[in-house]
Amino acid sequence: MDPAGGNRNDTLLSVRDLCVYFRTGDALARAVDGVGYEIRNHETVCLVGESGCGKTVSALSILGLIPQPPGEIAGGAIGFDGLDLLGLDEAGLQQIRGKRIAMVFQEPLTSLNPVFTIGDQIGEAIKVHRNGSDQAVRQRGIRLLKDVGIPSAEERFDAYPHQLSGGQRQRVMIAMALSCDPDLIIADEPTTALDVTVQAQILKLFKSLQQHRGMAVLYITHDLGVVAHVADRVYVMYAGIIVEQGFTDVIFHDPRHPYTQALLASLPTRLKRGKRLYSIPGSVPNPAYKPSGCPFHPRCRHAVQSCRNDFPDLCDYGSGHLARCPVLFEEKTKNVPWSR
Amino acid sequence: MEPITQKNGAVLHVEGLKKYFPIRKGFLQRVVDWVKAVDGVDVWVGPRQTLGLVGESGCGKTTVARLILRLLEKDAGSIRYKGNEIGGFTDRQMKPLRKEIQVVFQDPYGSLNPRMTIAQSIGEGLRILGIGKSQWPDRLETLLRGVGMSPDIADRYPHEFSGGQRQRIGIARALSVEPSLVICDEPISALDVSIQAQIINLLKDLQDRLGLSYLFISHDLNVVGYLCNTVSVMYRGRIVEHGPAEALFDAPAHPYTRNLLAAIPEPEPGKKKDWPSIPEEADTGLSPPAGCGYQRQCPHAEDRCESEPDRFVRVGKDHQVRCWKTAGKDSR
Amino acid sequence: MEEHPAEQTVVLDAPTAPKRTRFQEFWLLFRENRLAIAGMCIFFLFFLVALTGLVLTSGNRPVLNPSLVRLEEKLRPPLARPNLTSLRPGEVPLLGVYLFGTDDLGRDVFARMLQGAWVSLTVGFVAVGISVLVGIFMGGIAGYFGHSPVRIVHLLLAGLILAGGGLAASGGWRIGAFLTAAAGVLAVWLKRRYAHRGSAPWTIALRAKTFNVDTLIMRLVDIMLCFPSFFLILTVVALLPASIYNIMIVIGLTSWMGTTRFVRAEFLSLREQDFVLAARALGVDTLRIIFRHMMPNAVAPVLVSATIGIAGAILTEAGLSFLGFGVPPPHATWGNILSDGKQFIFDAPWLTFIPGVAILIVVLSFNLFGEGLRDVLNPKLRERH
Question: Chain C 313-342, CB below 8 Å of chain A: which residues?
Fold first, then answer.
């Protein structure tokens, strides 16, 4: 892995300055407000943030899944392996969806159609992009179910979604995503709705699949524990912008944005028993009524006057670690270590 | 479970609680089997204490909460509140006691009536206490400030607030009747990470200030480890391990507890976790096996697990586990 | 970084979006539907017209006289000038023209239309009012108490009350009142003494379960739906003495079934919502939970069906009047005017055209208004729930 983290030849997906706005009534909700990230071949990138930060919207815009009224792509570029995704029409996007970029959603209950069998749905995913006899499609489908660890795959192939548990349904979703050997999988909170033991199995599955098939994964989540285990690189989002990015261990051991630091400090663990949890005052801003300057400044311990007036740029700490806080960047020169 | 050797004066003491739901099949809707949602559960909460009830979905912890609140009728067992047996109380008998045991729900979006203002929602509690309308503004102010909200939100409707704010309002409503015991049914699971810490701190402060006891139901072991004095782990309707929080987390005795703890991803990269390989998920359609309910998933299962009756064994001070094997290994 | 300072609990949060009541949000959505707005305007216009019409045409010396017969002026077309020579001073129409012409007895059709508007309005609103009240009550009971069993004793008491009511309605006031009162007293006494105990065979027989409340009410709905409603109304109206009140009550009592189903469905889903459980946990009375907590949330579909129901009631009344079973003459209703005019449809087409178009406009606008309400109330509110 190139420690410089610069633009390399094997950049698979690059998002630059993406702006996605939603018009609701008379207000303009700036869901994604100038976001840029990149994913290289074979790596796992995590987009971390709380609800309303724009991570899901930015992922949906990669595949052109944002309904254009009321949403609008107000700016930016998304490049995938040389293609300009924002410039593609629906037919062009359909060639990408499922085949080269696949998506796994959060709710396995509603992502699968209850009136069709698992086999029908996987078969459809396969047939969209590849031709083949029914028998071949069936064999491939069963093979996929085995790959994702569903026991008794032949029987499960003909079962209906309601006959499977939540974890198994999510595995089926993953199988469908893998059916055409995509280069990139976007997983939008795939384990949030699952129990923690099931989540552990799914995370293990993702890791092994990635090793065997060499795909890249964009993993969207709000769970910092999951991030620590699956991600190679992390982008932290808040109120529609990237506030910090870097390699995983750097983000966790040396965070340099007040929001990241506060998030890590506010996680309850049994080691903090008896001590008061740090909690960030206030709440996430409404995307239509964002504060001026840095969107985090009303809740930030380090805020100064300039935070209210100027929108901060990303400050470079080296080795691909960037954070959008000039105040802490100046403190860095004083070499203050951070401890939880 | 052997009686918990605590001092007297339990706020809540539940023994042998059972709730079975019938499965009906056929034209005549005959009962063919039972879903043992709660199968002999004991709970003990002391004054100013927090008991954590932990388990994954479907283990029956929410049903336990409903049974204690008498929103659901139990099939067997005793529920004692401050020494009084309330399990068999009629609605009329329960009415004066309802204000002593309150609840905070998981979903902030369903827990407030969308057609009532905040003042009206909380006012229902004040009305129960018999407080006249003239005193409502003062009470509302105290309650709302107590949960960190400004009193001039009283005329607004729930849809104008975020999830965390609604949860605070829900807590204010629960406190409006001055309870001694508050059952928190996954109160922070639906909230953002940064808001969770706010609500956890709030709950702790309220406990210190008002002397509340909590029955804290959650699937999040991190929160439970941080907040609770004692912890009970539930699996498929039964408590499989119970003990003081530190002891339980330092030395989990039951294989399910160990599994649960091992599965939590901790925000510590580099601490490469070797997740245990867990066999196929529990098929909840099948009826539970004889003996230990966990044997089909347990990596240490033996034949004895099916024949041996499912009993609690002591592994430490106030620390009990429902497993003959690990108890044998770690017993002192 | 140093230890984080203890953060106070007091985090004075306030919502940042501008304060908007539910009504304002509802209005913003509603006004985008042009047709619905048109419907609503006509709704209010109709209301005003009916009220002014009532004022202008009632009393001994009405401003606009709907029943003044001027045989020399019969079948004059709309906007015709009156023949001032043959009329007495009090017979001249107010505006100097016959706005809508005259009918075969020389009566001013405009005045009659105004008088009829009031009838249509009252029949519409009162009939729907009755059906909504009955429907909400039945639907609420079925939805909330669905699984509670109906016991023999309940049936007996209900039977007594209905018998009492029926007797009272058909003239036997004293016997009816006595039976109802006796049933009430019996109910209270039985509940006090034998609600939970009592092992004598007759108490066990009384407490025997028959079927669910939900089953009872839904089968009742099914039975009522078996009757073709218009013919049912026709039959009942033909049997009873002709009066506007009977018509209103009969229409109301034969159209509550749809509302019942809506309200029951809403209640079934509301009953499991956390805020209802919270109210039960607080110890709020069951009746208060049903009417104060749950009912306001269940009203949305009822509003829609009520608006559309008013249109239906107006049409039914017009139909009854047309067939001769409506409000007795000389009181004017739109159906009457239509009916009287059908003999002269070639000579004086305005006599059928004007009331027909009026009915069309009113019914259409009510339907549009109701559908506009439905579009706004249903999906959006579902999201917020």
Answer: none
What are the residue ranges spanned by the domains of chain C? 22-59+113-148+213-384, 68-106
Residues of C with Cβ-Cβ distance to A261 under 8 angstroms: 1
B2 pLDDT higher than 70: no
Q: Is the dihedral of CA C193, C198, C203, C208 positive or negative?
A: positive
Maximum separation of any 2 CA atoms in chain A, in Å: 68
Cα torsion through C209, C210, C214, C220, rounded to 10: -150
Q: What is the Cα–Cα distance from C50 to C52, expressed in whole angstroms? A: 6
Nearest CA in chain A to C12: A282
Say yes or no: domain C22-59+113-148+213-384 is CATH 1.10.3720.10.
yes
Measured in angstroms, the CA of B236 and the nearest CA of chain C are apart by: 23
- Write out pLDDT tens, residues C86-109: 777 767 777 777 888 888 888 888
Sort A272 into a burial class: Cβ within 10 Å, 0-12 / 13-18 / 19+: middle
Provide CATH code, domain A11-100+183-332: 3.40.50.300
Facing B164 at nearest CB: one of A249, A272, A283:
A283
pLDDT, tens only, B15-29: 999 999 888 777 766
Query: Distance between CA atoms of C120 and B292, rounded to whole angstroms?
Result: 73
pLDDT of residue C10: 36
Name which of A50, A166, A252 is nearest B267 (Cβ-Cβ): A252
Output the CA angle C330-C331-C334, nearest 5 degrees. 115
Sheet order of strands, A44-48 included: A101-104, A184-188, A216-221, A44-48, A233-238, A241-247, A322-323, A315-316
* Domain chopping of chain A, boundaries: 11-100+183-332, 114-181
How far is residue B35's CA from residue B285's CA, in Å, rounded to a whole number?
9
Would you give per-residue pLDDT tens digits along chain A (340 residues)?
334 344 445 889 999 999 999 987 778 889 999 999 999 988 999 999 988 889 999 999 999 898 888 888 988 999 998 889 888 888 888 888 888 999 998 877 788 888 999 999 988 888 887 778 889 899 989 988 888 888 888 888 999 988 888 888 888 999 988 888 899 999 999 888 888 888 888 888 888 888 888 889 999 999 898 999 889 999 999 999 999 999 999 999 999 999 999 999 888 887 888 888 888 888 788 888 889 899 999 999 888 898 899 899 999 998 999 999 998 888 776 655 555 4
Instruction: Sketch the domain layout of chain B as residue ranges.
Output: 12-100+179-268
Q: How far apart are CA C372 and CA C367, in angstroms?
A: 8
A268 phi/psi in degrees, rounded to 5: -80, 130
Written as six digits, the tokens of A188 are 């939008």
Tell me which H or E stretch contains C200.
none
d(CA A78, CA B108): 37
CATH no. for B12-100+179-268: 3.40.50.300
* Cβ-proximal residues to C48 (8 Å cutoff; 6+ apart), any chain: none
Tokens of C136: 């909400």
Contacts of A276 in chain C (CB under 8 A): 4, 6-7
ipTM: 0.86
Residue B49: alpha-carbon gap to chain centroid: 13
The three-state secondary structure class of B182 is strand
- Predicted structure pTM score: 0.83
* Distance separating alpha carbons of residues B136 and B126, to the nearest angstrom: 7
